Amino acid sequence: MFETEPTTTALLLAAFGFLLLLSVLFSRASERIGIPVVLVFLLIGLLVGSYLPEHFVDFDLAFRIGTMGLVLILFDGGLNTPFRQVRRHLAPASLLATVAVAGTAILVAAVAWLLGLGWMEAMLLGAIVSSTDAAAVFSSLRGSGIQLRRRVGATLELESGLNDPMAVILTLTVTTQLLTGEPFTPAGFVADVALQLAIGVVAGVTIGWLGTRLLARIRVPAAGLYPALTLALALLAFGLPTIFMGSGFLAVYIAALMLGNQRLPYRSGILRVHDAMAWLAQISMFLVLGLLAVPELLLAAGWQGLVLALALALIARPVMVALCLLPFRYSLRETGFVSWVGLRGAVPILLATFPVLAGAENGMELFHLVFFIVVVNALIPGATVRWAARLMGMEQAGAERPTPVLEINAIDSLPVQIISFRLDPAAMATGNRAGMLPLPQGADILLLVRERQALPVDADTVLEAGDHVHVMVRPEDKRAVELMFGLREED
Hints:
Blueprint lengths: L6 H27 L3 H13 L9 H21 L3 H32 L4 H10 L5 H10 L6 H13 L1 H17 L5 H32 L7 H19 L4 H13 L6 H25 L3 H6 L1 H24 L6 H9 L5 H6 L1 H5 L5 H17 L5 H7 L25 E6 L21 E7 L2 E3 L12 E6 L4 H7 L7
Antiparallel strand pairs: 1-4, 2-3, 2-4
């Protein structure tokens, strides 16, 4: 009876809905006690998976869900990254995303070899855990309640968005060599990496450029079709370069960067939909990957996983970050914080399914070893992000820019924006009447929020420190208005 449709599908959907509900409800509690929310999703999947029949463990399905989830997360991260942030911090982030990833893989492999793993297995383990995880970093930084110095926060977010391709290439290369026994050739490896990255960059730029032109010209009958269009671009950005042996993950991030820094129709709606999809993807991929783990195998990997997790957090990551950031004159505290917040998450677990799917010897043991490393890494560096930022002085002084209470949603691209400010005592606008401010032509103060009360603004309204001011402005006048209302220069 229970094996017939639609009962089976109904049971699966109800079970998944229940898991989603648990994950969302526990996310608030995890924030209060300092445990990264992504770890909660992972542990719920692990707990439920221990009670499920063996046929529910499907590595192929988990890999597909995880890949789709990572595409959505990277696309959302790219949409929310401004170009000026990329230009200033691309060089150090690129070194961290390539050289540091390769160096971390080698150092972790050396420790794994000392613990008794074969050299190729050790190299595979190092490759899998070598990159930071975009989902873990984005959620930890944005959910920690702290405002990081822009240089440090931008470097971390850019690195996590750019370094997945390198880890994927390393993992696929070492897995192939482990199965075929082909000798490792540094020149061939470098050429393969360069080719995949180049194809990814070209594909990302091309799809991003075509996507901006398409969105600027096309008119759809309903606003909800715009997020569907950008989702289609994200899927194409991953699929096309991957088919031609390029880095689809890099292409997704670059295409999203280009789209996010252009004037988009229904922009706020597009960003909200992709933010929701990224969170749903994050919850789903961690839950599904958690279902794959077997508690007994996790316990068996305990002591090796603990040693490797500590070596990764305290030796491999700090050494490589220090070497890569040395030419850019990052302070010792900045380097230390970037080293500490190199969080691992679903990406290493997703990569650990490669050897299992390929039928590699000891693939399941390696998967559980990686799983244990990720959990320890999330508990130690991940749970101490707020504490480390304050200890190392990485918090940016001043109040965080407020979330707008006004926004414009329109199917067509409008020639104005609404920007929100919290007035600083030293701002030029503070203490002045609204009618006396030299606002650019077409700019206007729409609303003032003071002590949780919305107040109308007229020419005689005096602006006070701490006020939330919402200003309508044309994009070309944005910089002048920001300077007037006291928005700080970037560090």
